[in-house]
Write a structure and sequence with these properties.
Blueprint lengths: L1 E5 L28 H10 L8 E5 L3 H7 L8 E4 L5 H14 L6 E6 L2 E4 L1 H17 L3 E6 L10 E7 L8 E8 L4 H7 L5 E4 L4 E3 H11 L1 H11 L4 H5 L8 H9 L3 E5 L3 E4 L3 H10 L9 E4 L5 E4 L6 E4 L4 E5 L4 E5 L6 H10 L6
Parallel strand pairs: 1-2, 1-4, 2-3, 6-11, 13-15, 14-16
Antiparallel strand pairs: 4-10, 5-12, 6-9, 7-8, 7-9, 8-11, 16-17
Helix pairs in contact: 3-6, 3-7, 6-7
InterPro entries: ManC/GMP-like_b-helix (IPR054566), Mannose-6P_isomerase_type2 (IPR051161), NTP_transferase_dom (IPR005835), Nucleotide-diphossugar_trans (IPR029044)
GO molecular function: mannose-1-phosphate guanylyltransferase (GTP) activity
GO biological process, one term: GDP-mannose biosynthetic process
C-alpha cells in the first residue's frame, strides 16, 4: 500500500488565518503541530518515510519539505498548476505508474482530516490493501450517522465483501448527491446509509483504466506524460474538474466499494469544525483578555494576545483577528467564509 497525503488547496473557509502563502494544513491549528505533520506521524506508526508520498503543488512543496524532512525528494508529486481534484488524482496514478508501481494499491489521505484512533486508521488502510489487490474496483470511504449532515454526499452500502475480522468493506448500492435537509432526514433512515468520506483506494492501473473509459481527455495527457512527454504541457491540456466526473460513472456501473471508516473522522474545514474539535480535545479556552458576558458557544482567535475583546449577550459567533483582517461570522454560516474571500479578491484588497 502507498499512502499519499494530498495537500494542495488554500483552505479558503479558514480565511483569514489560512492564506495562499500559509495554507491551513501547514499551520498549528490544533496544538503545536500542523495538520500535515499530524497526518504524517499517524502514517509513520506503520509506514517508513520512503513508503509515504505527498501530492501538492510547486507553491507549497517547500513548506512541506521544511515540516517533514524525512520524505525523499522523489516521493513528492507536484501539480504544475491547480486543476481541481480530478486531474490531481489522475496525476497521482500516472506518477506511480511511471515509477513501476502500477499494480500497487494507493490510498489518498486528505490532509485536513484527523482520524482517531490511529491504529484503527492503519488497520483500515491494510484491509483496503487486501481488497484492492483482488478487486478491480474504486474504493471510497463512508461514515454512519444518526442525524442529517448537510452539504455532503451519501452512499447506500450493500453486500459485504471483506472477510471476517477485517473492517467492513461493502458494495455500493447507490450514490446520492447532496440533498435538501428534508430529503437527507429521510435518507438516513434507510438501512446502510453512509456519509461519503473520500479515502480513495485502488491501484494506479485500475484508476487509469477508468479514466480511459470515462474521461479520455484526462487519460490521454496523463499517458503521454507516462510515456515521456513533459508534464507541464500535458497537464495544461486536462480540463479542470472534480473526481466525481469519473466516480458518478463508476457508481452507476457497479465498479465501486465503500469502506465503513472504523474511527472518528474530523474534517478541519471550517472554523465551526475547528472549534468543535478543540472543545472535544479540551484545547479551547478563552484567554483572560477575552471578556464574554452572557454568551455561549463563541470562538475567538487573536494574533495579538494584548488586544482586549469584549462580547456581550451574543451566541455562536466566530471572531478571528489576524491584525490585517477581522472576520466576524455566525458559527452556522462558516461554510460561506470563502464567499467573503471572493469578495475581498474582487475588490483587490490584497489580503489573500
Amino acid at each position: 500500500m502507498i499512502p499519499v497525503i494530498i495537500c494542495g488547496g488554500f483552505g479558503t473557509k479558514l480565511w483569514p488565518v489560512s492564506r495562499e502563502h500559509k495554507p491551513k494544513h501547514f499551520l498549528p491549528l490544533v496544538g503545536e503541530k500542523s495538520l500535515f505533520q499530524l497526518n504524517y506521524e499517524a502514517l509513520r506508526t506503520h509506514f517508513t518515510p520512503e513508503e509515504i508520498y505527498v501530492s501538492t503543488n510547486e507553491d507549497q512543496v517547500e513548506l512541506a519539505k521544511r515540516q517533514v524532512g524525512e520524505i525523499p525528494e522523489e516521493n513528492f508529486i507536484l501539480e504544475p498548476e491547480m486543476r481541481n481534484q480530478g486531474p490531481a488524482t489522475g496525476l497521482i496514478a500516472a506518477f506511480l505508474y511511471k515509477k513501476g508501481l502500477k499494480d500497487e494499491p494507493f490510498m489518498i489521505v486528505q490532509v485536513d482530516v484527523l482520524r482517531d484512533p490511529t491504529d484503527s486508521f492503519i488497520k483500515m488502510i491494510l484491509d483496503c490493501d487486501t481488497i484492492a489487490r483482488k478487486e478491480n474496483k474504486y474504493i471510497t470511504g463512508g461514515i454512519s450517522t444518526d442525524f442529517p449532515v448537510m452539504g455532503v454526499d451519501y452512499l447506500i452500502k450493500g453486500q459485504k465483501v471483506s472477510s471476517e475480522g477485517s473492517v467492513g468493506i461493502f458494495k455500493v448500492e447507490k450514490f446520492i448527491w447532496r440533498s435538501t435537509e428534508e430529503q437527507t432526514k429521510e435518507l438516513i433512515k434507510q438501512e446502510g446509509a453512509l456519509i461519503h468520506a473520500n479515502h480513495t483506494c485502488m491501484t494506479s492501473q485500475n484508476l487509469l483504466n477508468m479514466l480511459q473509459k470515462y474521461k479520455p481527455e484526462w487519460y490521454e495527457p496523463l499517458m503521454n506524460y507516462v510515456n515521456g512527454a513533459e508534464l507541464k504541457s500535458e497537464y495544461s491540456k486536462m480540463p479542470p474538474g472534480p473526481i466525481e466526473d469519473i466516480t458518478q460513472q463508476v457508481y452507476a456501473n457497479d465498479e465501486a466499494l465503500v469502506v465503513e471508516l472504523p474511527f472518528q473522522w474530523r474534517d478541519i474545514g471550517t472554523f465551526a469544525t475547528l472549534h468543535e474539535y478543540l472543545k472535544l480535545k479540551g484545547l479551547y479556552k478563552a484567554s483572560d483578555n477575552i471578556v464574554d458576558l452572557d454568551g455561549k458557544d463563541n470562538f475567538v482567535k487573536l494574533d495579538d494576545m494584548n488586544k482586549v475583546v469584549a462580547l456581550v449577550g451574543v451566541d455562536h459567533l466566530i471572531i478571528v483577528d489576524t491584525g490585517d483582517a477581522l472576520l466576524i461570522c455566525d458559527k452556522n454560516k462558516t461554510s460561506r467564509v470563502n464567499e467573503a474571500l471572493k469578495e475581498v479578491k474582487k475588490r483587490e484588497l490584497s489580503l489573500t
